[in-house]
Amino acid sequence: xxxLAGLQNNEDMKKMKNSEKIYITGHRHPDSDxxxxxxxxxxxxxxxGFDAVACRLGALNPETKYLLERFGFDEPMLFEDARSTLAxxxxxxxxxxxxxxxxxxxxxxxxxxxKQSLAIVNSxxxxxxxxxxxxxxxxxxxxxxxSISLLKETPTxxxxxxxxxxxxxxxxxxxxxxxxxxxxxxxxxxxxxxxKDRLVIVGNDTDAQLAAIRKHAGILxxxxxxxIEPEVYELAQQMHCPIIKSGHGTMNTTRYLYFSPPVRLxxxxxxxxFNINEFVEEVGMKMLKSRYRSYPVVDDENRFVGxxxxxHVLNQHxxxxxxxxxxxxxxxxxxxxxxxxxxxxDHHRISDxxxxxxxxxxxEIIGSTAAIIASIYFENQMEIPKRLAGLLLGAIIxxxxxxxxxxxxxxxxxxxxxxxxxxxxDIDAFAKEMFKLTSNISNRAVKDLIRQDIxxxxxxxxxxxxxxxxxxxxxxxxxxxxELEKEMKSYVKGKGLDLLVMAxxxxxxxxxxxxxxGKLDYVVEEAFPNNxxxxxxxxxxxxSRKNQFVPLLSRAIINTxx
Length: 562
Prior knowledge:
Distance between the termini: 34 Å
Number of strands: 22
Strand content: 15-25%
Shape: elongated
Mean pLDDT: 90
CATH class of the largest domain: Alpha Beta
CATH superfamily of the largest domain: inorganic pyrophosphatase (n-terminal core)
Largest sheet: 6 strands, parallel
CATH topology of the largest domain: inorganic pyrophosphatase (n-terminal core)
Low-confidence stretches: 1-11
Structural class: alpha/beta
Helix content: 25-40%
Strand order of the largest sheet: 3-2-1-15-16-17
């Protein structure tokens, strides 16, 4: 047995304080001992300065719900997979633009934010598309036909904004083909140029301005011009020719023009994006099939939440997990082998858990994991609050079947007595109340009874599952026999089991009755012989799955095939 008290001085654990979340979980199909141990150990870790969270791997049974409600504890979070999702790692911040952002503005944002790509979102922050720096740079390097087609679709005010200019006159009936002409000569020479539907850049020459409009210019852009004469405005209105005053000289005006189109005209909509709930390792595999540096991440409503890159995938940390009340992969959270396993606190046989490095492993011959957790509090001289003491006491009573289970030790009884004093509870009265309120099976679905506390075992190469239900009296099981046998056969078929055993255990009567399904159902009769003429005989003093059900069934199965 390893003492966990000294674990707090471990350098790795010190570094983890207040930084990485630790998930503390019991086994699948959780019972009260599993849930309460996770809650109590989480509270201890929090008091030690760790960011810990209590977890569950399934629905709570009525007894556990009763205990949590009675002592005022919330239901632990559902822990579905030990792999990290994008939601659980640090992404690059959600810097975005809209479809109306100009190419120039997008380039400036990329420069200041050191971004190679930008997500384009709508007013509801939903992802519409992406642009990359190479997409934008290509505008200046591509064939002029591309630039012309983009400029043709660019609103007048976008053009003015990009050249630090001002729209002096706009027209809904503008006739602009996207081509640009620079006229830096006198009006007398304009007759030699075809200016129809073009953006014409002219200087402070009223005659030249008028001549350009008469030649059906699509947009008149004036440089180095403070005032536009009234006759120019009048003619522009007649010819549906917008007028823009540039904030730059001829050269820079011409240079910046082609960066005025909105990004909606060039954005990519056929995107590779990831959902915030996707697993990081799966995202990494998908990235290998593409060339992008950064990818948009969205939620279930397609709202943009951030960027993920190969850097994030390569530098992500596995989830930190502590197991209580179990040490088997088959009973633990999905993908537990992908997690960083920090500790195990348990009272079951040591099974198949394999770790890449040494961990703290506390395994005791004791009736309840909750009793071990309480011991750790005492060893660390940490006070147990009244309501937590009551919760721990309930779990100990549950897992030891009020100290009647053969797994019960004097340590269980001693710790229970201390907890009862802290919680100001009478053990006998509390146990009677708990079992009476939670062991009524008449109003519960048979499917739920099978699944509420079931564990999987491999015995001599055979797939075996054993479910245990605490009933006020074992006779209650006879009322549901027909439906129970039907559901058990269905469960065996669905899980591909060799044997399913259902034990109904009564604390009041101090014993159990057994039901079986599967091709090995006959071994249950060998392990727990029925009285002559009876189908499901009461087995007095048979209460413990760990110390009685499993050993006797294992012996019967091994003897059958060897």
